[in-house]
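User: Batch of two.

Assistant: Item 1 of 2:
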Amino acid sequence: MGPGRPDPDQAVAGRWRGRHRVGPPVSAVGRSRLLRLPPVLPHERVPDRARGCSGRLAAVTATGAPAPSSTHRLTAALFAGGVATFAELYAVQAVLPALAAEFSLSESTASLAVSVATGALALSVLPWAFVGDRVGRARAMRWAAVAAAVCATALPFAPSFGVLLALRAVSGVALGALPALAMAHLVARAEPARVAAIGGLYIAGTTIGGLSGRVVTGAVAAGWGWRWGVAVTAVLVAVAVAVFVVLSRGDDRRQPRSRATPSGGPPVTTTLGAGARLRAAFTDRTVAVFYAQAFLLMGGFVTIYNLLGFRLLDEPYRLPASVVSLLFLTYLVGTVGSSGVGRAVGRFGRRRVLVAAGFAMAGGVALTLAPSLWLIIAGLVVATFAFFPAHAIAASWAGERIPGARSQVAATYSLAYYAGSSLVGFAGAAVYDRGGWTGAMAVVITGCVVAASIAAIGAPRR
């Protein structure tokens, strides 16, 4: 090409640059850049990203907007949220005998301090799912976390058991946001290959929260009374809420309903309204298997820990309250189990691990029927270790099942989970009033066996 003659390639590039705002070629980018693509679940259609007909694949520069939530930030935020939620939700479980003594209550009536909160939480999860779809899941969870922290701060000043139950009910409503939305938020944000692992770490956060709430409250209450125990836990909750609020900021985008439904699921499309999404969450038979795990296993788990203090403070053990509170340290094995669920699933498959966990929990509960204190502790360890992987698998699997109704599925799972905590927990306490520990644990063992059998028959074999 002679001097002074225009380069036709440059002229064409100029015309295209004017019409389509073509950026610099990749060769002109000084260093490597990251191309961010949305995660696509198995059997999903890749979303059409070229509707603007630009005809080019852009290189994302270093000055571009970051991803809505990095993997580490998302994991840390959900971990902190799990700590805050469960520390507040189950703090009073460690002081149920103290509440019964101060307010002259039976075991089943005192257990309402737990059942009222979990029941209110169960009723709130579906409304929170729609709120999350409307304003953004991260924003809804932040609003609720702050409200729950306020309730936790007010709880130590309750003048009567009735006021305490009212505060627990309001707290339960606020705490419903995280269980309703966390797994849906996780599945939408994380890479599909990382969902089970991050979900396990979120469940680990719930175990740390449940452990710290119970142990801290019980240890402080043993020396200074239940009000001081609950107050110290309220400070822990406020700190965890602050961490969650800070780490979840900037992740407020509402989720586009642009995903296709995996094969085998109900016909959910991107144009379905709220009622249709809710029907899809309720009518999928496979997801109902996971709802059954949540209701039966969580109900049994809460029954064990609701009644543990009453049994060990009574004859023939007569353990000090401070020592009984230390038995909640068995929650640590739940943290180990849930954080390692990703590796177990990768090796054996989700269905096998879920079924094995249900039967293992039943075996652990059976050990607690022995009179030996050491066998009781061993049974608690086994049951706790088995419960949390089962919960992590069922929750994340349910969230993946129907992408077009993800919030509704996660909320319905949480509804089953906390309905089990409230209803089975109260029923187990009522059986304990009449039949003692043996009768209550028979209820728990039956629920675990039924849950594992349902998973063996109804869970997908992949």
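Item 2 of 2:
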Amino acid sequence: MPKQTSSRTAITSAISGLVLGAALLTQPIAAVAGSVVTLWHTEPNPKTVGVMKEIIADYEKLNPGVKVNQEPIPWGDLDQKMQAALAAGAPPDASHGQAYVERSLSAKGLLLPIDEVVESIGADDIWDVVKKLNYHDVGQGDHYYGLAHAIGTDVHIIRKDYYRKAGISVTEPPKTWDEWLAQLKKLTVDTNGDGKIDVYGLGLAGPGFFINEEVYMWVGSNGGRLFDPNGRPTLTEKPVIEMLEFFKEVSDCCLAPDWLSHGYLDTFAMLATGKVASILGWGRGTGYFEKYAPDVVANRDIGVMPGKPVGPSGKAFLTQLDCEPWMIFKDGKNPQGAIDFLKFFYQPDNYRKYIQTVPIHFFPIRKSVQKDPKYLATPDLGTWKFWVDAQKNIIGNHDPKPLFITEWDDLDLPFVQEVASSGIMVEMVTDVVEGRLSAADSAAKAQKRTEKLITQLGYKKW
């Protein structure tokens, strides 16, 4: 999700879901009367905030004198706020962040283990991919330093009516970038004969966070990675240069001329209103389609592809795994209170109600909740079952990875957070698509800048 700041120390995370639902426990969770728990999240949509208020109210009833404050923060504001809080030594008690942010902060000793929360759930009830992300050693043995609030995947979303009109399959994704580019060109059309393009083949979000998404997914789909095993950037290697050349081709032929100014929700609006034939995005967009394009939804003309194309140097596609973990800050005013609250949050009824606020984007990390009849009866899971099935297939069979992670061991690199938030990758792309530099020259420039940044941070090991 969304955003990029230019500061090297910015926290490129976004806190995605928060505590919600309502269900009473038979035994209160231990909490200190008179204490305050501060939680940050980036789920300001009214439905999620409303459920969150319910679960907070239930928790406070069970723990008289305890106050839980939740602060919904827009994606575009979280990084600066988190950066300032950490610099001042005054972080919240709990927050969400990208997987690489959790690894970076835990390695710096800023987070507390949350093994208690996992134990309250039961490790066997948690999806293996979630445990793989958050269970690791920062010098004190293996512990959980985060726990995903939910998981989901980025998918290729299409207007099936436009695809059918162009004679393109609505069920079989293109296998290669060349095939995809040919399809996007067919989908980019002047519909009224006035000499101007009315529908573009693809819509992408331009703010830096989203360009970071495309960079790592497309490099990974082209058989490349962003760092070698020693942590040295690999930006001058063939897979990256081919990615930049492909980005330029797509931008020139099949993206709106002003795509760099489009926000994430803009791309959903463009697909809903027929200004683009496809986008890359997440399941939370289903509500947007239902609100702004009910006829398109009723006609079942929104679809998702079960996979993505592979570049000329690649063998398998890479897509993003959304898996932002809850993190507990050691320097928060009440970190133990936050741990107690998360135990309550993850209890089945509370957690199910939270998941149901964004049910196509949020997959439960608890296996038992995935099988819960009340969860399975969620109305959206009927309407959008094909979307859910596509994500489950990707998670189960195609090894999606977190933002900026092309290989799982990249999570152990201590500088990924700083590189991701530096703006270097964004400038590498925009220099090419706007014609300032060739792919090779832009990659060389980015390589130098990234090597310099890692060296300045004290992490150079090559």
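Residues 24 and 58 are 6 Å apart (CA to CA).
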